Amino acid sequence: MITVLIPTALRSFTERQGAVQLEAGTVGQAVAALAENYPDLKQHLYDDQGQLRSFVNLFVGGRNVKTLEGLATPLAEGETLTLVPAIAGGRDA
Amino acid sequence: MMNILDMVGHTPLLKLDKIAPEHNVLAKAEFVNPSGSVKDRAARSMLLDGLARGRLTRDKIIVDATSGNTGIAYAMMGASLGCGVQLYMPANVSPERKSLIRSYGAAIVETDPLESSDGAFLAARAAAETRPDLYFYPDQYNNPANPQAHYDTTGLEIWEQTGGAVTHFISLMGTSGTFVGTARRLKDFKRAIRAVAVQPDSPFHGLEGTKHLASTLVPGIYDPNLADEVVTVSTEEAYAMTRRLAREEGLLVGISSGGNVAAALRLARTLPAGSLVATILCDSGSRYLSDSFWGV
Ligand SMILES: Cc1ncc(COP(=O)(O)O)c(C=O)c1O
Question: Are residues B216 and B282 in the same domain?
Fold first, then answer.
């Protein structure tokens, strides 16, 4: 299991939960599983072409996955993935 | 002689002829304000109001929550007035903004990025409440001097610069000060002027400085009766227009400016000839160079 931390802005789509536990081996799988568990969330994370919206920032271990392997970044058992809007690109959230 | 506070406002009103050759889309160049954004107007108004009421004195530290631009304005003005400045902002605010604030000598307290601007607001308020003797807390979300700045200046300037011919005002909202004060003044000049409020299309967005009101704490200064219409803009649409403004108009502005112009152009296309749509170029694009949307 891994944990995804949900920003307050999206908690109305996750039954108010700020942390969601999922089975996933990569960052991409985790986001996809999240959108599958909470279908109303999908349009807020993905564009019409099914691509992750460009301002969605994902952090693992304090690092933006854009500086790691992107959606292919592996997630180890027990790891935490944090979803943050890219308010002006903030890299060091 | 003048000081930095006297340089606020009186910004040019630009006609966007390349983006909107067949319509009258006008935009206030707020990036020419001394700290580089529209927030100089509100910050100046709230600080002068505090000074006039005797609540802001030299020994006080100015404390408030900000997504960046108000903080940069307070930092600049605090330095000029000789007051300390301490700002609460979400940790995911851009590195450019934090550097600007620290360069003026102000302090930053970072709040949980997951809580966005509401988290910063609650933290700033809690700090201000514990030490009212130490802090001056303008509380930009609830201070009437914020929209009043736009009533006294932005709205008046747009009216004068268009010779009273403006027919529509449209803008995104953060604290809502710009929208509320400007729309109120223009409607006081002429009831028929239409005010269109713009909202991010999702609670989760990249429109820096703006707030999705349906999912966040509604600012006390927001007046729900002012908007004749509310429209939405997506972050992608704002990014695309921000790029176009740089490449077609030579205007390097921020994302909310792109969102404003995108919404203004969409509106203008639905209006009869002779309509004149005014909006805001909130800040400079140099504050967003670490973003990837420029595509460079
Ligand atoms: C870049 C940017 N755009 C728009 C706004 C919204 O302005 P207002 O707070 O007057 O609604 C802000 C406010 O901080 C901002 O920083």
Answer: yes
Q: Which of B67, B256, B257, B284 is catalytic?
A: B256
Q: Is the pLDDT of residue A91 over 60?
A: no
- Indicate the burial class of B134 (C-beta count within 10 angstroms; 0-12, 13-18, 19 or more): middle
pLDDT score, position A87: 66
- Give the residue from chain A lying closest to B287, CA to CA: A88
Type of residue at B113: P
Q: How far is the CA of A21 from the centre of ligand 1 (A)?
A: 35
Last residue of a domain, one of B95, B113, B136: B136
pLDDT digits (tens, 9 = 90+) for B228-248: 999 999 999 999 999 999 999
Residue ranges in chain B modelled with pLDDT below 70: none
B199 and B105 in one domain? no
The β-bridge relationship of strands B276-281 and B24-29 is: parallel
pLDDT of the residue at B38: 98
CA B193 to ligand 1 centroid distance, Å: 22
Domain count, chain B: 2
